[in-house]
Design a protein that fits this description.
This protein is mainly alpha-helical and about 120 residues long. It has four helices and no strands.
Amino acid sequence: MNDTDKTLVFLTNNTDLPARTIAELYRCRCQVELFFKWIKQHLRIKSFFGTSENAVKSQIWNAVSVYVLVAILKKRLNLSASLYEILQILSLTMFERTPLDQLLARIPPASDQPENPNQLILFN
């Protein structure tokens, strides 16, 4: 039983470990799965280039570094675009000689108006 008085059932073939340990392992696994989901969604890592611990850690740290640098860039330039949009622009213009502030200043401001003035707004 947990704090909400719900009974949780976990299946395992390891009968040597106590039930609380099995439940804790499942909880930790869920956190790992959520972490990898966040990585795929935000850090643009679709697959790992290597299988060793060092290769995976290096790739994750590189991606986190880029993510943080883009977040700093977004804040310093006061950009309205999402981090995803900025990363898209940077990946397409990686080898251009245009300064970043000029490159990202071209991002059109987010508009609340629909593209078609005859289109009704479903949600406000």
